[in-house]
Specification:
- This protein is mainly alpha-helical.
- It folds into two domains: 12-148 and 232-257, no CATH class; 152-226, no CATH class.
- It has 14 helices and two strands.
- The protein has helices at residues 3-9, 12-17, 23-26, 29-44, 59-67, 72-79, 83-89, 93-96, 111-136, 139-148, 153-183, 195-219, 235-253, 256-265, and strands spanning 100-102, 108-110.
- It has a two-stranded antiparallel ribbon with strand order 1-2.
- The chain is globular.
- The termini are far apart.
- The mean pLDDT is 81.
Length: 268
């Protein structure tokens, strides 16, 4: 299997992990979606020069990794895919904002560097939070949670079908690339003259597969509508939601590391 196909098949890890039977996985998907939304909103709402005050936000992914029995490496690998974009977006900050600030006794840095680091931390935490949501909640449960939030059903159906279509595309790409390399052993890549014909064949084969899937759905009663059941919240769901929201509000409106430092040094 070539590297592209192997990396694309890595998506299946999250589907498999979402089927685990842990305390986090048993929570209502609506609660996990709301907590993730509040967490990302809290992370991006910090000032562009704030770094130390965001440190407590790392507690949430650390706890979810532990309670959800999720491996850290696959999540970090997937999160790193967006890192080049993050680095590119904020690369001009150090050049545009050159005003200096003292962070320690003899350490002076520009505000642009602080804002650049802050941007990286915000984006990384937000991406990891989204990855953890997918790793602890199946796509069907996410669709059910979106339905509970009264998201239009056409958007939910589009989201589900698009996600399922990715796997059809992956399988067909794997079959085509495997067939090609069996006929061209030792070749490092697909010759550029064949990119067009192979791409057209890929789209035609995935379209045929999608038509077969749609026919199977229609035979099983699908009529273009997505039906959801009512979400029932239990006491564990309420406790999880309330505790995390209280924690995130406390972190957002109080500099927790500074408060702890003052307590430990007796500065109060």
């Amino acid at each position: 299997m070539n590297r592209i196909t192997k990396s694309m098949y890595g998506i299946r890890y999250f589907d498999e992990t979402a089927q685990n039977d842990t305390m986090i996985h048993k929570l209502n998907p609506l609660v996990k979606l709301l907590v993730s939304f509040v967490y990302i909103l809290t992370a991006v709402s910090f000032g562009k020069y704030e770094i130390v005050s965001m440190i407590p936000l790392a507690i949430y992914p650390a706890i979810v990794f532990n309670l959800g029995d999720i491996k850290i490496l696959p999540v970090l690998k997937s999160s790193l895919l967006v890192m080049p974009l993050i680095l590119f977006v904020g690369i001009s900050n150090p050049m545009l904002d050159r005003e200096t600030v003292v962070i320690f006794e003899n350490v002076v840095v520009s505000r642009g560097i602080l804002s650049y680091i802050s941007l990286i931390i915000k984006c990384t935490l937000s991406v990891i939070c989204g990855m953890l949501l997918i790793a602890t909640t199946s796509v069907d449960d996410l669709a059910k949670a979106l339905g509970s939030m009264h998201v239009p059903k056409i958007f939910i159906m589009t989201f589900l079908l698009t996600y399922r279509y990715i796997y059809v595309l992956i399988e067909e790409f794997s079959n085509i690339s495997t067939s090609y390399f069996l006929r061209a052993p030792g070749q490092k890549g697909i010759h550029y003259k064949l990119w067009g014909p192979l791409l057209g064949q890929l789209l035609m084969r995935t379209y045929d597969r999608a038509q077969s899937i749609y026919s199977a759905m229609s035979l099983r009663g699908y009529r273009g509508k997505y039906y959801t059941v009512k979400n029932i919240l239990h006491i564990n769901d309420y406790l999880y939601l309330i505790l995390w929201i209280v924690f995130l509000f406390m972190v957002r409106f109080n500099n927790v590391p500074v408060m702890l430092g003052n307590i430990m040094t007796g500065a109060f």
